[in-house]
Design brief:
The chain is α/β, with parallel strands linked by helices and about 575 residues long. The protein contains 25 helices and 18 strands. The protein has a 7-stranded mixed sheet, sandwiched between helices. A 6-stranded antiparallel sheet has the order 6-5-4-9-8-7. The chain has a 3-stranded mixed sheet with strand order 1-2-3. β13 (about 390-395), α17 and β14 (about 415-420) form a beta-alpha-beta unit. The radius of gyration is 28 Å and the shape is globular.
């Protein structure tokens, strides 16, 4: 049945599903009643009611209507062709242009029986429409990737530059303008919408000579858009300072603030940091999605063996557990996931953070404020007088905080904290280097979890890859065995991953539980003996080995294994 046949006689999806024997007449009547109540499409309704799996539904439509069923996650699009259909139309009708086909266009549709949508597209595009059926979830994700707002950002930036040709007074007025139609307001709205759409963790606004760079950190890597309208940087900084409650007249000193914004039906907490640079002020914004903040340890991607041991450590009544790694390695997410599991009416939990990133119910969260001398150490002392069972210290930065936390771990409290170190082996010694007595670290520290985030190879453009001889020698030393003939994966770059070859991230971990030989080495202040004792543990595997495990099963690439372990000591990589 062609699309022309569909126009000649009205075909209903309910009749098709009954003819295919996929649902009963009773189920159809129930679905029609539910559809009247919700206003959803009938196809979505029968799937939501559990009468049929989405995959079977789409394949049935494909067979009955004699149109292709296309898996979008493996489909390569022509960006210019796809964007010839206005975004509003694509989102309204749940459609996307896939390719040219004969005298018309192949269009992916979640409802290929929507004749009104086909007529409207033909009117707009002046081309014949050949429908194909696609998954709704894949289509919505693809629309977010295709209809990025980079051109819209550039257009509004040009409009804003046109309004910044008079004087500094006008610039200040524009920055403070509360009019939601002002170009600076629309530019910021578009920036945030694009960042949330692309799942960016940070937005950087960086003025340079004669231009301004706007960069987004996506999957741990910065993506850049350069604009020649360099004057807009001052207006953006002014507006962001006002939103964050910062001093707009102070341009010589760094400032920190925060504000909340609602973007695409999500509550986003934005942490703002400004810093004076050569050509103005640089702004970095960390985006924290409060509405989607669901924490669980399974969601961290922790290997089952490490997850089981980490959960056991969290159930201990006292002692300190450290989570270590560089900035952006997911330490806070791991700790919040652990707190979520521990959070119950029977336990009093207090956190000391700088800043409080996510709000957790039933947990007493305290924001450190150095301006009023509300330091980690001071809050931690007060917290221990609040009768807590579990204390989370956002970060151990100095000897005083470390000593208070370790003593709390000795007096019946479970203490969780983070430390900026490269791996688990150096963490205990880092505390001693801060000036903490070795016996205190040896007695109170239960375990150290070190972690990194590696990028996942994009499934849409994944291909086999053979490492070069030098890489193979390094990998075999890490694997402690031959890897000859083993095939690895890498992404060549496609539309789905913005030509990066990667899509999403997964954590790699090493968990070090202290035993008697390690404790004895700590008491002696012997880092070499501590490291040797750690390597003798049957369960200990370094970060690099965990990363290699993911590469061996095609989750990540060899390049990511090398990148993640580049900062580790050579003896740790080859041990």
């Amino acid at each position: 049945m062609t699309s022309l046949d569909l126009r000649q006689r009205k075909v209903r999806i309910g009749d098709l599903l009954i003819q295919a024997g996929l649902i009963t007449d009773t189920q159809l009547q129930l679905a029609l009643q539910e559809q009247k109540r919700t206003g959803s499409k009938l196809g979505r309704t029968v799937v939501d009611l559990g009468f049929i799996d989405e995959g079977r539904l789409l394949k049935a439509l494909s067979e009955q209507l004699q149109i292709p069923f296309i898996e979008l996650k493996h489909y390569k699009l022509d960006n210019n062709l796809t964007q010839s259909l206005p975004e509003a139309v694509a989102r309204r009708f749940r459609v996307i242009i896939l390719s040219r086909q004969g005298d018309g266009l192949l269009v992916g549709m979640t409802d290929p029986l929507d004749l009104f949508a086909q007529d409207e597209m033909e009117r707009l595009l002046k081309k014949r429409i050949h429908p194909a059926v696609v998954r709704e979830s894949e289509l919505l994700a693809m629309l977010d990737q295709v209809y990025r707002r980079t051109s819209q950002i550039a257009s509004i930036a040009g409009e804003l530059e046109g309004e910044l040709q008079e004087s500094d007074f006008d610039l200040s007025r524009l920055g403070a303008d509360s009019n939601t139609d002002a170009p600076v307001v629309r530019l910021l709205q578009t920036l945030f919408e694009d960042a949330v759409q692309m799942k960016a963790s940070d937005i950087h606004i960086e003025p340079d000579e004669g231009l301004v760079r706007i960069r987004q950190r996506i999957d741990g890597v910065l993506n850049e858009q350069v604009m020649k309208e360099h004057r807009i940087a001052s207006a953006l900084v002014m507006r962001l300072k006002i939103m964050s409650g910062l001093d707009i007249s102070e341009k010589r000193l760094p400032q920190d603030g925060r504000f909340n914004i609602r973007v695409r039906n999500r509550n986003i907490d934005v942490r703002v940091s400004t810093m004076p640079v050569q050509f103005g002020e640089s702004v970095v914004m960390r985006l924290l999605d409060q509405s989607g903040a669901m924490f669980n340890l399974e969601g961290t991607g922790m290997p089952p063996a490490i997850l089981e041991r980490f959960r056991r450590l969290l159930q201990r009544p006292h002692g300190m557990v450290l989570v270590t790694g560089p900035t952006g390695s997911g330490k806070t997410t791991t700790l919040y996931a652990g707190l979520t599991e521990l959070n119950s009416p029977e336990k009093k939990i207090i956190t000391v953070e700088d800043p409080v990133e996510y709000r957790l119910p039933r947990i007493n969260q305290v924001q450190v404020n150095a301006k009023i001398e509300l330091t980690f150490a001071r809050v931690l002392r007060a917290a221990l007088r609040q009768d807590p069972d579990i204390v989370l210290v956002g970060e151990i930065r100095d000897q005083e905080t470390a000593e208070i936390g370790l003593r709390a771990a000795l007096t019946g409290h479970l203490v969780l904290s983070t430390l900026h170190t490269n791996d688990a082996l150096t963490s205990a010694m880092r505390l001693i280097d801060m000036g903490v007595e070795p016996f205190l670290v040896a007695t109170a520290l239960n375990a150290v979890l070190a972690q990194r985030l590696v990028r996942r190879v994009c499934e849409s453009c994944m291909e086999e890859h053979e490492p070069d001889p030098r890489q193979l020698v390094w990998l075999e030393g890490l694997h402690r065995g031959s890897l000859t003939g083993r095939r690895f994966k890498r992404g060549v770059g496609c539309h789905h991953c913005h030509n990066s070859g990667y899509s999403g991230r997964v954590g790699v971990y090493e968990l070090l539980e202290l035993d008697e030989p390690m404790i004895a080495a700590l008491r002696r202040g012997d880092p070499q003996g501590f490291a040797e004792a750690a390597r003798q543990q049957p369960h200990y595997r370094p970060l690099a080995a965990c990363a290699l495990d993911y590469a061996l099963v095609g989750v990540t690439s060899i390049e990511e294994v090398l990148r993640v372990t580049a900062t580790l000591a050579e003896d740790e990589v080859t041990a």
